[in-house]
């Protein structure tokens, strides 16, 4: 296995920009939900940014990612555009799904983002199928599947990992263990202490990584991506992380203590990467401040884009909706 080299200055700059972009985007979305600009709810990724950024840092542009209901950060880390992402949350025509998909259902195939998914564990078999496609086409692509600790208890998790191991598929399964499935502590829902231990049942490597540290996630990902691309099969990586906020906008977090939250906030991934980045001469405090400002400007530009984008036309309501007339006729005859 090739030794993992630490990211260079350009990669550190990119990672720091993406961390701040995702954090600023999610915090801005929360204010927009509160003032009614965005309808419904949202599942903030605040605190978990290092997992998405560290995982995508190890990927090629043509590699694929499959996401979850908490997917804004994954899309941005894979190179997604904050403008159509924000517009989609506003329900506007300029959004990734034309304003009809919303926070949990959007994709950008141009950057290899195969979509978020509102079903717990729903993206795991999709990513496994995408990896089978890459293998059959001999494309050299790798698929990364993100999911939470709660999804690791779904049948789709076990079925998918079993098939991926049997067929040596080019896929990396990344479990974002943020310690809670909604309000249920992982210790009350999982019989093993570490979800990575489950990899042994499927004859694949199981790796634990500090999900609050971009560099630790990147270091765990690179050998797994190399293994997948070389045809040696899948890896399960468990990133221990923490969502600083609630499961969704309305969650008051009564199931965990503020002392616990403070302890995890002390490990903020943005502050940790900022400290690590300063080993590069060009990444001074002033340079990092400028990068952070650039990211925050991009978020405000996305809000402006979303506000200016029109709502979908009424005629677009059925776009992308299909009906099999033959099947409908057969059902009528059967009844």
Shape: globular
**Low-confidence parts:** none
Strand order of the largest sheet: 1-2-3-7-6
| Whole-number total of structural domains | 1
Describe this structure in words.
With 335 residues, the chain is an alpha/beta fold. The chain has one domain (9-334): Rossmann fold (3-Layer(aba) Sandwich). The chain is 43% helix and 9% strand. The chain is built from eleven helices and seven strands. It has helices at residues 9-34, 49-57, 72-77, 82-89, 123-137, 155-166, 214-229, 258-265, 269-277, 285-308, 325-334; strands spanning 64-66, 143-148, 171-177, 180-181, 184-185, 206-210, 235-240. It has a five-stranded parallel sheet, with helices on both faces. The mean pLDDT is 93.
Give the SSE layout.
Blueprint: H1 9-34, H2 49-57, E1 64-66, H3 72-77, H4 82-89, H5 123-137, E2 143-148, H6 155-166, E3 171-177, E4 180-181, E5 184-185, E6 206-210, H7 214-229, E7 235-240, H8 258-265, H9 269-277, H10 285-308, H11 325-334
Parallel strand pairs: 1-2, 2-3, 3-7, 6-7
Antiparallel strand pairs: 4-5
